Amino acid sequence: MLHCDRLFSGVDNIYCVFLGSLHNLSMLNKQYGLSKGTNEAMFIFEAYRTLRDRGPYHADQVLKELEGSFGFVIYDNKDGTVFVASGSNGQIGLYWGIAVDGSVVVSEDLELIKASCAKSFAPFPTGMQI
Where is the DUF3700 domain (predicted)? Predict the structure, then answer.
């Protein structure tokens, strides 16, 4: 697994954790009309919100435009949804499982997932979302 920083963004009851980097962030910021200072987490947040609110595109439409090594989790408290994705190159490992209380756990830390989810865990498929 590639070591990477975590970036956070949250506004209007939508929260994003982003791992890794986007090679085409500058181009994406221009395309979405965002400032040069917009980081990956803020971009994912804005792209998700734009696609969710302005349809008719499904929120995963944004995945097709992303280039780089990344993984992210968006929690949309307004809609009660979770959107998780990892890049198709598989360099950012995400794992998921079901905890004893029935909640879904997503992390880049395999040992944390193993400890939290006993036998109910697996690598998160690349390029996919839940």
Answer: 1-130
